[in-house]
Specification:
Blueprint: H1 30-57, H2 61-67, H3 77-91, H4 103-108, H5 117-128, H6 132-149, H7 152-165, H8 173-206, H9 212-237, H10 242-274
Helix pairs in contact: 2-8, 3-8, 6-10, 7-8, 8-9, 9-10
Length: about 280
């Protein structure tokens, strides 16, 4: 057998030098094409579902297995995050996008107006010669796309946070990033579940569009759920003493929505000043 990719001569089904599968002209048939497509879909589907199952039921186990070399059963951490991120922004249509709010929110509610957001918008309108409604439409379209793209910053940020709080474990920074990627994937899953299993039923029963008290309750529930999950995941992955693991988890839960507010303001300034 002669490898079509690297030129290595081999007798195996897969090239030992580069991993390329042995090629035969029959692979160009419609039948083989359909078989490969179906196999690839099923393979992806089974890996995705299995990884989600372990991620949800055994916090920290996916990160532990992946960093110790047991990878064949799992999707790659960033690949998993990408898929769940895409699902999040698709099915959250009709629900509040936690990471990117409309312009109305920025110029109406605290804490945004504490940063003179309305004055900044007025300066932008004067400079651009756009009406408020025109700029509002542009802003709302842009923040939907930007909130999806820059959400990767949370992986980097939490990778740094976990690395600082658990530096004595002497893990590579990439290991912290892997844990952070799986953590952020779970955060998106919790938000999806909260939106459809708690928030939507409440508003349908209460027959109201907005309830500040309920929103505060839901935010507290998400923060607490995040803290509990993180505590178990840290215990399994980093193996610190129980007290320190709980302390770090409480810090993560307590600052979760603060970091989201910082992210929202980052997007606001980015769109206003950089486009």
């Amino acid at each position: 057998m002669h490898c079509k990719s690297c030129g290595n001569n081999h007798q195996e089904n897969y090239c030992p030098a580069c991993g390329e599968k042995a090629f035969h002209p029959k692979q160009l048939s419609i039948k083989h094409f359909l078989e490969e497509t179906f196999e690839g879909f099923v393979h992806f589907d089974s890996k995705f579902l299995y990884t989600l199952k372990i991620l949800i039921t055994k916090p920290g186990q996916v990160s532990l297995d992946y960093t110790e070399g047991r990878r064949v059963k799992y999707m790659k951490p960033v690949q998993l995050f990408l898929v769940v991120n895409l699902i999040y922004f698709i099915i959250m249509i009709g629900n509040t996008n936690t990471y990117g709010l409309s312009l109305y929110n920025y110029v109406t509610y605290r804490p945004f107006i504490n940063f003179n957001t309305w004055q900044i918008v007025k300066q932008k309108l004067a400079h651009s010669k756009l009406s408020y409604s025109e700029f509002q439409q542009l802003f709302n379209e842009r923040i939907v796309s930007d909130s999806k793209e820059f959400i990767f910053l949370f992986i980097l940020l939490y990778g740094i946070i976990f690395g600082l709080f658990l530096f004595w474990k002497k893990k590579y920074f990439v290991e912290h990033l892997i844990f952070a990627a799986n953590f952020m994937t779970m955060v998106l899953i919790v938000q999806i579940i909260s939106a459809y299993a708690i928030k939507m039923p409440f508003y349908l029963i209460a027959k109201t569009d907005y309830s500040p008290n309920f929103d505060n309750f839901l935010s507290a529930f998400i923060a607490l759920s995040t803290a509990v999950y993180t505590s178990i995941a840290i215990r399994r992955f980093y193996k610190p003493n129980i007290a320190w693991g709980i302390f770090v988890s409480l810090i993560i839960g307590a600052t979760f929505f603060i970091l989201i507010q910082v992210y929202r303001m980052f997007l606001f300034y980015k769109i206003l000043y950089l486009g």
